[in-house]
Write a structure and sequence with these properties.
The structure holds three protein chains of three kinds.
Chain A: H1 16-47, H2 64-91, E1 100-107, E2 110-114, E3 120-122, E4 124-128, E5 133-139, E6 144-148, E7 153-157, E8 163-167, E9 173-179, E10 192-197, H3 199-208, H4 215-225, E11 250-252, E12 258-260, H5 263-271, H6 294-306
Parallel strand pairs in A: 1-5, 4-10
Antiparallel strand pairs in A: 1-2, 2-3, 5-8, 6-7, 6-9, 9-10, 11-12
Helix pairs in contact in A: 1-2, 4-6
Chain B: H1 23-51, H2 62-91, H3 95-125, H4 139-171, H5 177-202
Chain C: H1 28-32, H2 37-65, H3 76-111, H4 120-142, H5 156-160, H6 165-192, H7 205-237, H8 250-284, H9 291-305, H10 320-348, H11 357-380, H12 382-388, H13 392-422, H14 428-455, H15 469-499
Helix pairs in contact in C: 2-3, 2-4, 2-15, 3-6, 3-7, 3-8, 3-13, 4-6, 6-7, 7-8, 7-9, 8-9, 8-10, 8-11, 8-13, 9-10, 10-11, 11-13, 11-14, 13-14, 14-15
């Protein structure tokens, strides 16, 4: 590539080459059609240029065969595009098992990122090469959109819900991180850098980065501070459901429906406790809307997730 | 209005085409279709929000809320009946009777608006329901309730004014049968919208 | 309405000036209270031209800022206001009314052999509503502007923005009624007022395109209206429809907004396609190829247009299956669009092709629309749109459709019917020259943006990384050429109104009822109702008459 005048962004994730190939296919089809149409227009314009002012050509009314041809052929090409595009989309939609989880919070006008091990970054993201990374994303205010062109991934971050995306970097390097959804005054300043590192470098970075407590430790502290443990305690069941091993399980609700206790459900239950009450309990829990930041929510959820595996120490 | 060669013959000569109607009437139909999409969008938004909220309140007791709103519904239905009579009288060229029936329609329409306002005041004062909060949680309950019924009430109010203009004109010998019929179309449309609003807003929110 | 009803019974001799709609009466009153569709069209022409240059001014600001990577020309706040006002003014106050309100208003009654639209008073009222909306927009503009982007996404617009969102929403809301009433007027007129013998399938394709457009205006605009009302209620009073903290949903706003705003792009492009159908057939002097297919493809585009709004939301967190359905339906829009392009091209086959200015615009339109349409397929594609969404690729795509398509069609139509509207001919040399300048300037402005988009430059960026500079400078350079291309026609068209050569009744040797009236037409278009006995575009050799 030319430096200073590149035509392609770097391709640095497992899905980038698939997207580029699809792009090239569409470019080729577009060029073929454009050249065909422009060529025909140029040719007709020159070949049938008006010779005398009063010339009137023989009328042609149309041709059913031609009409059907140029409806059906584009239709078939369009279906190929649709099928191919949808296949690429679905292949890139579901994160693989065992992806490293990173939590993202958008806020006017910065990206805050938390690693489960406790490292926190702003507008910078360090990831190891060759390992799948899953992002769980929320926003404190307006809609943002997390966009890494070199990975060909983008996802809106929408108030009131979690969105997720994933990628697997394939090339060590520095890449742009953009906010793609207009979010106000400093929208174009809501940018950052993704550092893809070789595993040893990454380990070194992890070790060297300032780390306080892990996300679940921070979540546990918040859990205590907000008084959640007074009702949600494993040794004193009754007022609130026991949270041990709740993450990922299927929960029976008071109205007889069942839901899977994922991040979205836990988030909703903290912010709008009355929305989906577990069978056998009453809505006594106050809402925590406005009392807890999106980052704090992610920490509490990380804590609840960690309860899956470890016994809670009651004296903390 | 410009003279129109094609419709210079009687507007009611009939014919096979559904478009063999006067321009004004056709225009009103288009307006109604257009306005119907306004309400459709609003009601779809309401349904979407309600469906995605498990704890949507259903606070309306049969008495007095549902009885009261049923009376309102009957008042509005009656106004459609009197409007039919007005159009019927006009088709016989009886302008005096037409004016009386239109006035009756306006009375029913105004009564509906007044009853509606009374209900609103009751909800706001006694039940503490506002577009922003209500005693049953879900602030959107109030927002959608006042938004949808407010839009409908605006339409009824405009309808009453419109009928007033038509009645005044008919009384002074202006306006043709088509004008009265077109105003009737609008009025029936406003009633019809209520027939969607009433079950979606009231009947589906009955206290169980 | 009672001034100068009938022209002199005998054909006017060249020495005396015949009475026509422009000289039938004089003075402000005769214009501001006119019920003549042709005069109302000229009122619209003046007002949308004003808005076009306001919107263009903001485009200049945007392109100037983007010459350098740093945000150094103006503050981020001013930049955001500039691109928002560019969008709002161009879309709601120029593109949506442009062809329907000017050319449609002027031509539909004449093309169908009527004396006026079905509701002349309503037509005048529509213009006043448009102007009131325009005043509110001007108020919003002069009291600080608005910085939400023309898409007004909640919750930024409803809660966070400190700019004049409410006034802007009110302006768009009011103008919407003008659009609804114009559409309603056209539908009734086309149904009810066609001259004897002018059956549906004898209608000029311009009229078909406007029929489809009008249906979208009538059905789509009310949804935008109620969405804007909800936005205003939320912003001013705290209703929570789009606020998740109150149980609302910001994605709901996007659904409602695009339910109108995607069809709205067809409101902008369909009339232009109608113009191109007229131009291609006239300057090939040949019956249009596949009349029925072109007419029905307009209707198909109008119908499909209502079913594809979700393709603006592939990365908004809507369900993947919804994404699939919207993707496949969006691809379907490609078929009627392709049918049109193929039929226009085929019309030229064995024609008698003249390179008059309107035809140059038609060539430009077909080329640019082809590129715009094909790049639309990239965005309809789920796999690619993830990368391309909200980048400059999208900006380039819709400018190819909206400027390369709609504005080229509009200018082509203005040139084609200018002799009919004003009774004067414009200077052909200047006109061809400026059409070429426009074509070159346009491509230089917007083609680099496709490349920028795939490179990953997000739209609405005030400052950008340095590697994007070369392409941005090219784009800004192109924009300056484009600006000149718009100024030249502005000058010579204005000049020609007074000094242009007098136009004959039918300067192009075109078919269609509008070319049987004098240039300019009399107030009531036809002395007696014409009777149509042939198909549209029956170009036949003289001796067969």
């Amino acid at each position: 590539m030319w430096t200073g005048f590149p035509l392609f962004p770097e391709a640095a994730s497992t899905i980038a080459s698939g997207v580029d190939l699809l792009y090239l296919f569409l470019v080729v089809v577009s060029v073929v059609f454009s050249v065909g149409i422009f060529g025909a227009i140029f040719y007709f314009a020159l070949r049938y240029q008006r010779k005398t002012q009063d010339e009137v050509p023989e009328p042609i009314h149309g041709s059913m065969i031609l009409e059907i041809t140029w409806s059906v052929v584009p239709f078939l090409i369009l279906m190929v595009m649709f099928g191919w595009g949808t296949a690429v989309f679905f292949r890139n939609f579901h994160p693989p098992e065992g992806a490293t989880e990173i939590f993202v919070t958008g806020k006017q006008w910065m990206w805050k990122l938390q690693h489960p091990e406790g490292q926190r970054e702003i507008n910078e993201l360090h990831v190891p090469v060759g390992r799948a990374v899953k992002l769980t994303m929320a926003t404190e205010d307006v809609i943002h959109s997390f966009y890494i062109p070199a990975f060909r991934v983008k996802k809106d971050v929408v108030p009131g819900m979690y969105t997720t995306m994933w990628f697997e970097p394939t090339k060590v390097g520095k890449y742009h991180l953009f906010c793609a959804e207009y979010c106000g005054n400093q929208h174009s300043g809501m940018i950052g850098t993704v550092y893809v590192m070789a595993p040893p470098d990454y380990e070194a970075w992890l070790a060297g980065a300032p780390r306080g407590e892990t996300m679940s430790q921070a979540g546990e502290r918040l859990f205590q501070r907000l008084g959640c443990h007074t009702c949600h305690a494993a040794d004193r069941p009754g007022r609130g459901p026991v949270l041990e091993k709740v993450f990922g399980s299927t929960v029976l609700l008071a109205d007889g429906k069942k839901v899977v206790a994922d991040e979205m459900y836990l988030r909703e239950s903290i912010l709008r406790p009355g929305a989906k009450v577990v069978a056998g309990f009453k809505t006594q829990m106050p809402t925590f809307q406005g009392q807890i930041s999106e980052e704090g929510l992610m920490q509490i959820i990380a804590y609840i997730k960690s309860l899956e595996s470890k016994e809670r120490t009651t004296t903390q | 209005m410009a003279s129109d060669a094609k419709t210079a013959t009687s507007l009611w000569s009939g014919g096979g085409s559904p478009y063999a109607i006067g321009s004004k009437k056709f225009g009103m139909w288009l307006f109604i279709v257009s306005d119907m999409l306004t309400f459709t969008a609003l009601l779809v938004a309401y349904t979407y929000l309600r469906m995605s909220t498990a704890t949507w309140p259903t606070p309306f007791a049969f008495s007095p809320s549902i009885i009261f709103s049923t009376v309102m519904t009957l008042v509005l239905l009656s106004s459609s009946l009197t409007m039919v009579m007005a159009v019927h009288s006009m088709s016989h060229g009886d302008r005096g009777k037409t004016v009386k029936w239109i006035l009756a329609t306006m009375v029913f329409g105004s009564a509906f608006v007044i009853l509606h306002m009374m209900e609103w005041m009751h909800l706001i004062r006694d039940e503490k329901v506002t577009p922003f909060s209500n005693p049953w949680g879900e602030p959107l309950f109030g927002a959608t309730f006042f938004g949808i019924t407010g839009l409908h009430m605006t339409h009824v109010t405009i309808g009453v004014i419109y009928l007033g203009i038509i009645a005044a004109g008919v009384g002074r010998g202006k306006f043709t049968y088509e004008d009265v019929e077109v105003s009737g179309l609008y009025w029936h449309f406003v009633d019809l919208v209520w027939m969607f609003v009433f079950p979606l807003i009231y009947l589906m929110s009955v206290k169980m | 309405m009672n001034a100068a009803l009938a022209p002199p019974p005998s054909a006017p001799t060249p020495s005396e000036t015949p009475t026509h709609y422009l000289n039938a009466s004089y003075g402000f009153r005769s214009w501001l209270l006119t019920l003549d569709h042709k005069r109302i069209a000229l009122l619209y022409l003046a007002s949308i031209t004003l808005f076009f240059f306001i919107g263009g001014f903001y485009a200049v600001l945007v392109r100037l800022e983007l010459v350098t990577p740093a945000g150094d020309l103006m503050s981020a706040e001013n930049y955001n206001t500039a691109f928002t006002l560019h969008g709002v003014v161009m879309i709601f106050f120029f593109l949506i009314p442009s062809i329907p309100a000017v050319l449609g208003n002027f031509l539909i009654p004449i093309m169908i052999g009527a004396r006026d639209l079905a509701f002349p008073k309503l037509n005048l009222l529509s213009w006043y509503i448009y102007m009131v909306g325009g005043m509110v927009a001007a108020y919003a503009l002069f009291t600080g502007g608005v910085d939400t982007g023309w898409t007004l996404y909640a919750p930024y617009s409803s809660t966070y923005s400190n700019s004049n969102v409410t006034a802007t929403a009110i302006a768009a809301f009011i103008t919407g009624f003008s659009s609804i009433l114009t559409g309603l007027n056209f539908v009734v007129t086309i149904h009810k007022m066609r001259a004897p013998g002018l059956t549906w399938f004898r209608l000029p394709l311009f009229v078909w395109a406007h029929y489809a457009t009008s249906v979208i205006q009538v059905l789509g605009t009310p949804v935008l209206a109620i969405t804007l009302v909800l936005l205003i209620l939320e912003r001013s009073f705290g209703f929570g429809f789009f606020d998740p903290a109150r149980g609302g949903d910001p994605v709901l706003f996007q659904h409602l907004f695009w339910f109108y705003s995607h069809p709205a792009v067809y409101i902008m492009i369909l009339p232009s396609m109608g113009v191109i159908s007229e131009l291609v057939t006239c300057f090939s002097r040949k019956k249009v190829f596949g009349y029925g297919f072109i007419a029905m493809s307009s209707v198909a585009i109008a119908v499909l247009g209502f079913l594809v709004w979700g393709h603006h939301m592939f990365v908004s967190g809507q369900s993947v299956y919804a994404g699939m359905v919207f993707s496949i339906l969006s691809f379907m829009v490609g078929i009627p669009s392709a049918i049109k392009v193929f039929n226009w091209t085929a019309t030229m086959y064995k024609g008698s092709i003249s390179y008059s200015t309107p035809m140059i615009y038609a060539f430009g339109f077909i080329g640019l629309f082809t590129i715009g349409g094909l790049t639309g397929l990239f965005l309809a594609n789920l796999g690619l749109d993830i990368h391309l969404h909200d980048t400059y690729f999208v900006v380039a795509h819709f400018h190819y459709i909206m400027v390369g398509g709609a504005v080229m069609g509009y200018l082509g139509g203005i040139h084609y019917w200018w002799p009919k509207m004003t009774g004067r001919l414009y200077p052909e040399g200047w006109a061809r020259f400026s059409a070429l300048v426009l074509f070159v300037g346009f491509n230089l402005t917007f083609f680099p943006q496709f490349l920028l988009g795939y490179m990953g430059m997000p739209r609405r960026y005030h400052a950008y990384p340095e590697e994007f500079q070369v392409l941005n400078v090219m784009s800004s350079a192109g924009a300056s050429i484009l600006g000149v291309g718009y100024l030249i026609p502005m000058i010579y068209l204005f000049w020609s109104m007074r000094y242009g050569r007098l136009a004959p009744e039918n300067p192009w040797g075109a078919k269609g009822l509008e070319w049987t009236t004098p240039s300019p037409p009399t107030t009531f278009n036809f002395d007696e109702t014409p009777v149509v006995t042939e198909e549209a575009y029956e170009y036949v050799k003289e001796e067969k008459h």
